[in-house]
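Submission checklist for the structure archive. All mandatory fields must be present; incomplete records are returned to the submitter.

[x] Identifier: L-histidine N(Alpha)-methyltransferase
[x] Organism: Denitromonas iodatirespirans
[x] Residue count: 319
[x] Sequence attached
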Amino acid sequence: MTEPANFELHDLKPAVADFRREVLAGLAVSPRRIPPKFFYDAEGSQLFDAITCQPEYYPTRTEIGLLRAHGREIAERLGRQAALIELGSGSDIKIRSLLDVLRPAEYLPLDISLTHLRDSALGIARDYPQIRVRATCVDYTRQFALPPMSPEAHRVVFYPGSSVGNFEPDDVRDLLRWVAGMVGPGGRLLIGVDLKKDPARLNAAYNDAAGVTAAFNRNVLKRMVRELGAQLVIDDFVHRAFYHEALGRIEMHLQACRPTRIQVAGQIFDFAEGEGIHTENSYKYSPAQFAALAAEVGFVTEQVWCDAEQLFSVHCLRV
Ligand code: AVJ
């Protein structure tokens, strides 16, 4: 099928060499770690989509509920004639509900997962022929140049899904500072942030009964086999996820359930039983905590929407 005229794709996808370098560096330190951005190859993005449908995983459906319930108010806050930039373009439903009320001239989705990005951005270009879709496959945790957009359009950055929770407290300031520059005067940041809550609820969300989160976590090992030719025994690693209340974060690990070894790129990494690889942190915030953090880098909180159960929040910020 030919691509629609209002669609373009910029491919700044990280090379396999970047994955290899970060895996080797992360396995060489103690405790061992692999950054969560490497979950999202084609299979990982599919597994993540499956997570969002699990009954225990409340964030996605709660955020969609907030965007729908407050769509008109959100559109008024964000203003019309905007260029809409989406970081980590995830769920189609979220962005479509925003596009329906915002009707921007341009939509710029950024995502690290190429196939996922292309499929979703192409679908949007076809369904919204008046919107210019400029998709960029990129690791947005590093500095890069945005594709050109009309200078007069005021900019809205949409950062859904509480992906901001993946950043360490120190790094989150750098990220928000960079986003503030992208938003600019007159622009807005609309960001979804998962809330602190009963640990039992959090633990359940990252330990779904169907085992989808476990498969998502272990996919990074499969990816090492597929892309780096690693030799390892997947079944020697089990999924561990728990809420660390003092640090306010979910931690995910791949823990060796027996002594085992990973060979990759000519190097050998031995694991004692119980030793693990730290694969993800997902920080949770209270609305006030997040507003204070954003204020540190110059954001003003205009409005925060939360659901009745206080599970999830959507913040509208300006610089
Ligand atoms: C996409 C980072 C927001 O932390 O909830 C879901 C990723 N990891 N289940 C999250 C994830 C395990 C998700 N974020």
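[x] Structure attached
Curator remark: The radius of gyration is 20 Å. The chain has a mean pLDDT of 94.
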